[in-house]
Task: structure prediction
Amino acid sequence: MALIVQKFGGTSVGSVERIEQVAAKVKKFRDNGDDIVVVVSAMSGETNRLIELAKQISEQPVARELDVMVSTGEQVTIALLAMALIKIGVPAVSYTGGQVRILTDSAHTKARILQIDAQHIHKELKAGRVVVVAGFQGVDDCGNITTLGRGGSDTTGVALAAALKADECQIYTDVDGVYTTDPRVVAKAQRLDKITFEEMLEMASLGSKVLQIRAVEFAGKYSVPLRVLHSFQEGPGTLITLDEEESMEQPIISGIAFNRDEAKLTIRGVPDTPGVAFKILGPISAANVEVDMIVQNVAHDNTTDFTFTVHRNDYHNALHVLESIARDMGAREVIGDVDIAKVSIVGVGMRSHAGVASRMFEALAKENINIQMISTSEIKVSVVIEEKYLELAVRALHTAFELDAPAGKGE
Ligand code: ADP
Ligand code: ASP
Ligand code: MG
Result:
Protein backbone atom coordinates (compact mmCIF):
# COMPACT_ATOMS: atom_id res chain seq x y z
CA MET A 1 0.00 0.00 0.00
CA ALA A 2 1.38 3.37 -1.03
CA LEU A 3 0.63 6.97 -0.19
CA ILE A 4 0.24 8.93 -3.40
CA VAL A 5 -0.34 12.65 -3.91
CA GLN A 6 -2.14 13.29 -7.20
CA LYS A 7 -2.43 16.81 -8.59
CA PHE A 8 -4.95 17.59 -11.33
CA GLY A 9 -4.59 20.82 -13.33
CA GLY A 10 -7.22 23.25 -14.61
CA THR A 11 -8.23 21.54 -17.85
CA SER A 12 -8.47 18.19 -16.04
CA VAL A 13 -11.14 19.66 -13.75
CA GLY A 14 -12.53 22.06 -16.37
CA SER A 15 -16.11 20.73 -16.32
CA VAL A 16 -18.41 18.63 -14.13
CA GLU A 17 -17.89 15.67 -16.49
CA ARG A 18 -14.11 15.94 -16.16
CA ILE A 19 -14.36 16.18 -12.37
CA GLU A 20 -16.40 12.97 -12.41
CA GLN A 21 -13.74 11.36 -14.61
CA VAL A 22 -11.07 12.42 -12.11
CA ALA A 23 -13.15 10.95 -9.28
CA ALA A 24 -13.38 7.64 -11.16
CA LYS A 25 -9.61 7.64 -11.65
CA VAL A 26 -8.95 8.35 -7.97
CA LYS A 27 -11.36 5.54 -7.04
CA LYS A 28 -9.33 3.08 -9.16
CA PHE A 29 -6.14 3.87 -7.22
CA ARG A 30 -7.97 3.67 -3.93
CA ASP A 31 -9.54 0.34 -4.86
CA ASN A 32 -5.96 -0.87 -5.31
CA GLY A 33 -5.40 -0.13 -1.64
CA ASP A 34 -3.44 3.10 -1.94
CA ASP A 35 -3.95 6.12 0.31
CA ILE A 36 -4.69 9.12 -1.86
CA VAL A 37 -4.37 12.85 -1.31
CA VAL A 38 -5.64 14.86 -4.27
CA VAL A 39 -4.64 18.44 -5.03
CA VAL A 40 -6.73 20.35 -7.55
CA SER A 41 -6.46 23.61 -9.46
CA ALA A 42 -9.36 25.90 -10.26
CA MET A 43 -11.45 25.00 -13.34
CA SER A 44 -9.56 26.12 -16.46
CA GLY A 45 -9.95 29.83 -17.18
CA GLU A 46 -11.37 30.55 -13.71
CA THR A 47 -8.25 32.15 -12.21
CA ASN A 48 -7.92 34.41 -15.27
CA ARG A 49 -11.60 35.31 -15.03
CA LEU A 50 -11.24 36.27 -11.38
CA ILE A 51 -8.14 38.39 -12.05
CA GLU A 52 -9.96 40.19 -14.88
CA LEU A 53 -12.89 40.86 -12.57
CA ALA A 54 -10.57 42.42 -9.98
CA LYS A 55 -8.99 44.57 -12.69
CA GLN A 56 -12.40 46.05 -13.48
CA ILE A 57 -12.21 47.66 -10.03
CA SER A 58 -8.54 48.56 -10.08
CA GLU A 59 -5.68 48.10 -12.58
CA GLN A 60 -3.45 47.11 -9.67
CA PRO A 61 -5.70 45.43 -7.13
CA VAL A 62 -4.52 45.26 -3.51
CA ALA A 63 -2.60 41.97 -3.35
CA ARG A 64 -4.19 40.75 -0.11
CA GLU A 65 -7.70 41.15 -1.53
CA LEU A 66 -6.70 39.60 -4.85
CA ASP A 67 -5.58 36.50 -2.96
CA VAL A 68 -8.87 36.33 -1.05
CA MET A 69 -10.60 36.35 -4.40
CA VAL A 70 -8.52 34.10 -6.65
CA SER A 71 -8.28 31.41 -3.99
CA THR A 72 -12.03 30.85 -4.39
CA GLY A 73 -11.40 29.07 -7.71
CA GLU A 74 -9.75 26.13 -5.99
CA GLN A 75 -12.30 26.14 -3.17
CA VAL A 76 -15.01 25.33 -5.71
CA THR A 77 -13.15 22.42 -7.29
CA ILE A 78 -12.20 20.72 -4.01
CA ALA A 79 -15.84 20.66 -2.95
CA LEU A 80 -17.04 19.41 -6.35
CA LEU A 81 -14.44 16.65 -6.43
CA ALA A 82 -15.22 15.56 -2.86
CA MET A 83 -18.93 15.43 -3.78
CA ALA A 84 -18.16 13.42 -6.93
CA LEU A 85 -16.09 10.93 -4.92
CA ILE A 86 -18.76 10.53 -2.25
CA LYS A 87 -21.37 9.99 -4.99
CA ILE A 88 -19.46 6.95 -6.27
CA GLY A 89 -19.01 5.53 -2.80
CA VAL A 90 -15.55 6.86 -1.94
CA PRO A 91 -15.38 8.57 1.45
CA ALA A 92 -13.77 11.94 0.83
CA VAL A 93 -13.29 15.28 2.49
CA SER A 94 -12.13 18.64 1.14
CA TYR A 95 -9.66 21.02 2.79
CA THR A 96 -8.66 24.57 1.89
CA GLY A 97 -4.99 25.51 2.27
CA GLY A 98 -5.79 27.34 5.50
CA GLN A 99 -7.68 24.36 6.93
CA VAL A 100 -4.74 22.01 6.35
CA ARG A 101 -2.55 24.77 7.57
CA ILE A 102 -0.23 25.28 4.70
CA LEU A 103 1.72 28.06 6.34
CA THR A 104 3.32 30.58 3.96
CA ASP A 105 5.11 33.89 4.24
CA SER A 106 3.00 37.01 3.66
CA ALA A 107 4.16 37.79 0.10
CA HIS A 108 0.67 37.95 -1.38
CA THR A 109 0.32 36.56 -4.94
CA LYS A 110 3.77 34.93 -4.75
CA ALA A 111 3.94 33.46 -1.26
CA ARG A 112 6.41 30.73 -0.29
CA ILE A 113 5.42 27.68 1.72
CA LEU A 114 7.16 27.64 5.10
CA GLN A 115 5.56 24.67 6.80
CA ILE A 116 2.77 22.16 6.37
CA ASP A 117 0.86 20.64 9.25
CA ALA A 118 0.27 17.06 8.10
CA GLN A 119 -1.65 15.93 11.15
CA HIS A 120 -5.23 16.56 9.90
CA ILE A 121 -4.51 14.81 6.63
CA HIS A 122 -2.97 11.78 8.35
CA LYS A 123 -6.02 11.55 10.60
CA GLU A 124 -8.41 11.64 7.65
CA LEU A 125 -6.40 9.05 5.73
CA LYS A 126 -6.43 6.78 8.77
CA ALA A 127 -10.21 7.12 8.88
CA GLY A 128 -10.26 5.82 5.30
CA ARG A 129 -10.99 9.06 3.48
CA VAL A 130 -9.52 10.52 0.34
CA VAL A 131 -8.36 14.03 1.20
CA VAL A 132 -8.91 16.68 -1.46
CA VAL A 133 -6.75 19.77 -0.92
CA ALA A 134 -7.01 23.14 -2.66
CA GLY A 135 -3.88 23.90 -4.67
CA PHE A 136 -2.24 27.31 -5.05
CA GLN A 137 -3.22 28.66 -1.62
CA GLY A 138 -2.01 28.90 1.94
CA VAL A 139 -2.29 31.06 4.98
CA ASP A 140 0.23 33.34 6.67
CA ASP A 141 0.83 33.40 10.42
CA CYS A 142 -1.78 36.16 10.86
CA GLY A 143 -4.42 34.03 9.16
CA ASN A 144 -4.42 35.95 5.84
CA ILE A 145 -5.13 33.88 2.73
CA THR A 146 -2.12 33.82 0.40
CA THR A 147 -1.49 32.37 -3.07
CA LEU A 148 1.67 30.81 -4.46
CA GLY A 149 1.98 32.39 -7.92
CA ARG A 150 0.50 31.22 -11.23
CA GLY A 151 0.75 27.48 -11.68
CA GLY A 152 1.17 27.15 -7.91
CA SER A 153 -0.97 24.04 -7.49
CA ASP A 154 2.02 22.01 -8.70
CA THR A 155 3.94 23.35 -5.73
CA THR A 156 1.12 22.50 -3.32
CA GLY A 157 1.19 18.92 -4.65
CA VAL A 158 4.93 18.48 -4.28
CA ALA A 159 5.11 20.23 -0.90
CA LEU A 160 2.32 18.04 0.46
CA ALA A 161 4.05 14.94 -0.88
CA ALA A 162 7.23 16.03 0.93
CA ALA A 163 5.41 16.81 4.19
CA LEU A 164 3.47 13.52 4.13
CA LYS A 165 6.53 11.55 3.00
CA ALA A 166 4.43 10.23 0.12
CA ASP A 167 5.74 7.45 -2.10
CA GLU A 168 5.12 9.50 -5.24
CA CYS A 169 3.74 12.83 -6.42
CA GLN A 170 1.85 12.49 -9.69
CA ILE A 171 1.15 15.66 -11.68
CA TYR A 172 -1.77 14.98 -14.02
CA THR A 173 -2.23 17.41 -16.87
CA ASP A 174 -3.37 17.79 -20.48
CA VAL A 175 -0.19 16.35 -22.04
CA ASP A 176 1.21 12.87 -21.41
CA GLY A 177 4.54 13.99 -19.97
CA VAL A 178 7.38 16.44 -20.35
CA TYR A 179 8.34 16.86 -23.99
CA THR A 180 11.53 17.97 -25.72
CA THR A 181 9.67 21.24 -26.22
CA ASP A 182 6.07 22.46 -26.00
CA PRO A 183 4.20 19.92 -28.16
CA ARG A 184 1.67 22.63 -29.01
CA VAL A 185 4.40 24.53 -30.85
CA VAL A 186 6.46 21.71 -32.34
CA ALA A 187 4.36 18.80 -33.60
CA LYS A 188 7.50 16.63 -33.77
CA ALA A 189 8.32 17.11 -30.07
CA GLN A 190 8.93 13.83 -28.22
CA ARG A 191 7.94 12.76 -24.74
CA LEU A 192 10.91 12.18 -22.47
CA ASP A 193 10.87 9.03 -20.31
CA LYS A 194 12.92 10.89 -17.74
CA ILE A 195 14.55 14.23 -17.16
CA THR A 196 16.87 15.28 -14.34
CA PHE A 197 15.73 17.76 -11.67
CA GLU A 198 18.48 20.09 -12.78
CA GLU A 199 17.27 20.09 -16.39
CA MET A 200 13.61 20.36 -15.39
CA LEU A 201 14.46 23.32 -13.19
CA GLU A 202 16.16 25.07 -16.12
CA MET A 203 13.29 24.21 -18.47
CA ALA A 204 10.72 25.54 -15.98
CA SER A 205 12.64 28.71 -15.20
CA LEU A 206 13.25 29.37 -18.91
CA GLY A 207 9.58 29.20 -19.76
CA SER A 208 8.24 25.61 -19.92
CA LYS A 209 5.05 26.00 -17.94
CA VAL A 210 4.38 22.28 -17.64
CA LEU A 211 5.67 22.44 -14.03
CA GLN A 212 5.95 25.48 -11.77
CA ILE A 213 9.60 26.24 -10.92
CA ARG A 214 9.05 26.07 -7.18
CA ALA A 215 7.48 22.63 -7.48
CA VAL A 216 10.66 21.35 -9.12
CA GLU A 217 12.83 23.09 -6.51
CA PHE A 218 10.83 21.47 -3.71
CA ALA A 219 10.94 18.04 -5.32
CA GLY A 220 14.72 18.26 -5.74
CA LYS A 221 15.31 19.57 -2.23
CA TYR A 222 13.19 16.92 -0.51
CA SER A 223 13.84 14.11 -3.03
CA VAL A 224 10.15 13.71 -3.85
CA PRO A 225 9.64 11.14 -6.62
CA LEU A 226 7.81 13.23 -9.22
CA ARG A 227 6.02 12.13 -12.38
CA VAL A 228 4.10 14.10 -15.02
CA LEU A 229 1.22 12.16 -16.61
CA HIS A 230 -1.87 12.65 -18.77
CA SER A 231 -5.07 12.91 -16.73
CA PHE A 232 -7.17 10.73 -18.97
CA GLN A 233 -4.79 8.65 -21.10
CA GLU A 234 -2.80 5.68 -19.85
CA GLY A 235 0.98 5.89 -20.17
CA PRO A 236 4.23 6.02 -18.23
CA GLY A 237 4.54 9.83 -18.35
CA THR A 238 7.85 11.46 -17.47
CA LEU A 239 9.85 10.77 -14.33
CA ILE A 240 11.84 13.66 -12.89
CA THR A 241 14.95 11.95 -11.58
CA LEU A 242 18.05 12.65 -9.55
CA ASP A 243 20.44 10.45 -11.45
CA GLU A 244 22.28 11.75 -14.41
CA GLU A 245 23.15 8.69 -16.45
CA GLU A 246 26.50 9.02 -18.14
CA SER A 247 25.63 6.79 -21.04
CA MET A 248 26.82 7.09 -24.61
CA GLU A 249 23.19 7.61 -25.51
CA GLN A 250 22.96 10.83 -23.50
CA PRO A 251 21.59 13.43 -25.89
CA ILE A 252 23.47 16.71 -25.92
CA ILE A 253 20.24 18.65 -25.54
CA SER A 254 17.26 17.36 -23.59
CA GLY A 255 14.88 20.14 -24.38
CA ILE A 256 14.13 23.59 -25.76
CA ALA A 257 12.34 26.17 -23.63
CA PHE A 258 11.08 29.57 -24.65
CA ASN A 259 9.17 32.51 -23.30
CA ARG A 260 7.58 35.71 -24.45
CA ASP A 261 7.45 37.20 -20.98
CA GLU A 262 10.43 39.52 -21.20
CA ALA A 263 11.14 43.00 -22.53
CA LYS A 264 14.46 44.60 -23.43
CA LEU A 265 15.78 48.00 -22.37
CA THR A 266 18.87 49.76 -23.67
CA ILE A 267 20.57 52.90 -22.38
CA ARG A 268 22.92 54.28 -25.03
CA GLY A 269 25.93 56.58 -24.90
CA VAL A 270 26.59 56.42 -21.16
CA PRO A 271 29.99 57.94 -20.19
CA ASP A 272 32.10 54.84 -19.44
CA THR A 273 33.37 55.19 -15.89
CA PRO A 274 33.84 52.61 -13.11
CA GLY A 275 30.53 51.76 -11.44
CA VAL A 276 28.32 52.28 -14.52
CA ALA A 277 26.58 48.91 -14.13
CA PHE A 278 25.82 49.62 -10.51
CA LYS A 279 24.55 53.13 -11.26
CA ILE A 280 22.13 51.68 -13.80
CA LEU A 281 21.04 48.47 -12.11
CA GLY A 282 21.04 49.78 -8.52
CA PRO A 283 17.93 51.96 -9.00
CA ILE A 284 16.29 49.25 -11.14
CA SER A 285 16.70 46.76 -8.33
CA ALA A 286 15.59 49.36 -5.76
CA ALA A 287 12.38 49.65 -7.80
CA ASN A 288 11.86 45.92 -7.14
CA VAL A 289 12.46 44.96 -10.76
CA GLU A 290 14.36 41.74 -11.40
CA VAL A 291 16.86 41.78 -14.25
CA ASP A 292 17.52 38.68 -16.33
CA MET A 293 20.04 38.99 -19.19
CA ILE A 294 22.64 41.77 -19.39
CA VAL A 295 24.96 42.93 -22.21
CA GLN A 296 27.39 45.85 -22.13
CA ASN A 297 29.34 47.17 -25.13
CA VAL A 298 32.00 49.86 -24.95
CA ALA A 299 32.38 52.16 -27.97
CA HIS A 300 35.54 53.96 -29.16
CA ASP A 301 34.35 57.32 -27.84
CA ASN A 302 34.53 56.16 -24.22
CA THR A 303 30.81 55.70 -23.91
CA THR A 304 29.01 52.47 -23.28
CA ASP A 305 25.68 50.91 -24.35
CA PHE A 306 24.03 48.85 -21.67
CA THR A 307 21.17 46.44 -22.44
CA PHE A 308 19.15 44.24 -20.11
CA THR A 309 15.89 42.31 -19.99
CA VAL A 310 13.12 42.40 -17.39
CA HIS A 311 9.75 40.71 -17.02
CA ARG A 312 7.21 42.31 -19.37
CA ASN A 313 5.02 43.22 -16.40
CA ASP A 314 7.88 45.38 -15.09
CA TYR A 315 8.64 47.03 -18.43
CA HIS A 316 6.93 50.40 -17.86
CA ASN A 317 8.28 50.70 -14.36
CA ALA A 318 11.84 49.89 -15.54
CA LEU A 319 11.59 52.28 -18.51
CA HIS A 320 10.53 55.09 -16.24
CA VAL A 321 13.44 54.47 -13.84
CA LEU A 322 15.92 54.16 -16.73
CA GLU A 323 14.82 57.45 -18.29
CA SER A 324 15.53 59.22 -15.04
CA ILE A 325 18.94 57.47 -14.75
CA ALA A 326 19.74 58.55 -18.32
CA ARG A 327 19.05 62.19 -17.46
CA ASP A 328 21.26 62.00 -14.35
CA MET A 329 24.12 60.28 -16.17
CA GLY A 330 23.98 62.35 -19.34
CA ALA A 331 23.30 59.31 -21.53
CA ARG A 332 22.37 59.74 -25.18
CA GLU A 333 19.07 57.82 -25.26
CA VAL A 334 16.91 55.03 -23.84
CA ILE A 335 15.33 52.43 -26.12
CA GLY A 336 12.71 49.89 -25.09
CA ASP A 337 11.56 46.80 -26.98
CA VAL A 338 8.75 44.45 -25.94
CA ASP A 339 8.70 42.44 -29.17
CA ILE A 340 11.36 39.99 -28.08
CA ALA A 341 11.41 36.34 -27.07
CA LYS A 342 13.94 34.15 -25.31
CA VAL A 343 14.80 30.71 -26.64
CA SER A 344 16.96 28.33 -24.62
CA ILE A 345 18.49 24.94 -25.19
CA VAL A 346 18.90 22.83 -22.05
CA GLY A 347 20.78 19.63 -21.34
CA VAL A 348 23.25 18.09 -18.92
CA GLY A 349 24.86 16.51 -22.00
CA MET A 350 26.31 19.95 -22.80
CA ARG A 351 28.88 19.49 -20.05
CA SER A 352 30.69 16.88 -22.05
CA HIS A 353 30.25 18.33 -25.54
CA ALA A 354 32.04 21.33 -26.99
CA GLY A 355 30.58 23.57 -29.67
CA VAL A 356 26.97 23.33 -28.58
CA ALA A 357 26.46 27.09 -28.60
CA SER A 358 27.95 27.52 -32.07
CA ARG A 359 25.71 24.75 -33.37
CA MET A 360 22.78 26.71 -31.99
CA PHE A 361 23.96 29.96 -33.59
CA GLU A 362 24.53 28.19 -36.91
CA ALA A 363 20.97 26.80 -36.93
CA LEU A 364 19.56 30.28 -36.26
CA ALA A 365 21.82 31.89 -38.88
CA LYS A 366 20.59 29.42 -41.49
CA GLU A 367 17.07 30.71 -40.88
CA ASN A 368 18.33 34.32 -41.01
CA ILE A 369 17.34 34.93 -37.40
CA ASN A 370 19.31 37.69 -35.73
CA ILE A 371 20.52 37.06 -32.17
CA GLN A 372 20.21 40.14 -29.96
CA MET A 373 21.58 38.79 -26.67
CA ILE A 374 23.23 35.60 -25.45
CA SER A 375 23.68 34.06 -22.04
CA THR A 376 25.11 30.69 -21.10
CA SER A 377 25.47 28.46 -18.06
CA GLU A 378 26.85 24.96 -17.65
CA ILE A 379 23.68 23.27 -18.92
CA LYS A 380 21.92 25.91 -21.01
CA VAL A 381 22.35 28.51 -23.73
CA SER A 382 19.75 31.26 -24.09
CA VAL A 383 19.32 33.80 -26.84
CA VAL A 384 17.02 36.77 -27.26
CA ILE A 385 15.50 37.17 -30.72
CA GLU A 386 12.70 39.09 -32.37
CA GLU A 387 9.41 37.64 -31.14
CA LYS A 388 7.98 37.04 -34.61
CA TYR A 389 10.70 34.44 -35.29
CA LEU A 390 10.14 32.49 -32.09
CA GLU A 391 8.31 29.46 -33.46
CA LEU A 392 10.61 29.22 -36.46
CA ALA A 393 13.63 29.32 -34.14
CA VAL A 394 12.29 26.62 -31.83
CA ARG A 395 11.50 24.32 -34.77
CA ALA A 396 14.89 24.92 -36.39
CA LEU A 397 16.73 24.15 -33.15
CA HIS A 398 14.59 21.08 -32.49
CA THR A 399 15.67 19.71 -35.87
CA ALA A 400 19.31 20.84 -35.58
CA PHE A 401 19.75 19.02 -32.27
CA GLU A 402 18.09 15.88 -33.64
CA LEU A 403 15.16 15.97 -31.28
CA ASP A 404 12.44 15.50 -33.93
CA ALA A 405 10.31 12.40 -33.55
CA PRO A 406 10.86 9.82 -36.29
CA ALA A 407 8.20 10.09 -39.03
CA GLY A 408 4.86 8.82 -37.79
CA LYS A 409 5.80 9.04 -34.11
CA GLY A 410 5.05 12.72 -33.50
CA GLU A 411 1.63 13.94 -32.38
P1 ADP B 1 -2.20 22.37 -15.84
O1 ADP B 1 -3.41 23.24 -15.97
O2 ADP B 1 -2.53 20.92 -15.83
O3 ADP B 1 -1.32 22.77 -14.69
P2 ADP B 1 -0.44 23.72 -17.69
O4 ADP B 1 -1.12 24.43 -18.81
O5 ADP B 1 0.05 24.54 -16.55
O6 ADP B 1 -1.40 22.56 -17.20
O7 ADP B 1 0.81 22.88 -18.25
C1 ADP B 1 0.64 21.99 -19.32
C2 ADP B 1 1.02 22.67 -20.64
O8 ADP B 1 2.41 22.95 -20.62
C3 ADP B 1 0.83 21.82 -21.86
O9 ADP B 1 -0.47 21.90 -22.35
C4 ADP B 1 1.89 22.36 -22.84
O10 ADP B 1 1.32 23.20 -23.82
C5 ADP B 1 2.80 23.21 -21.96
N1 ADP B 1 4.23 22.89 -22.12
C6 ADP B 1 5.22 23.80 -22.29
N2 ADP B 1 6.40 23.21 -22.43
C7 ADP B 1 6.18 21.88 -22.34
C8 ADP B 1 7.03 20.73 -22.40
N3 ADP B 1 8.35 20.84 -22.57
N4 ADP B 1 6.46 19.51 -22.27
C9 ADP B 1 5.14 19.39 -22.08
N5 ADP B 1 4.28 20.43 -22.03
C10 ADP B 1 4.80 21.67 -22.16
N1 ASP C 1 -5.32 28.20 -10.57
C1 ASP C 1 -3.98 28.71 -10.47
C2 ASP C 1 -3.53 29.29 -11.81
O1 ASP C 1 -4.28 29.27 -12.77
C3 ASP C 1 -3.00 27.69 -9.95
C4 ASP C 1 -2.79 26.49 -10.85
O2 ASP C 1 -3.57 26.21 -11.75
O3 ASP C 1 -1.80 25.80 -10.61
O4 ASP C 1 -2.45 29.79 -11.91
MG1 MG D 1 0.12 24.30 -14.49
In short: Residues 16-31 form the longest helix (16 residues). The chain has 13 helices and 20 strands.
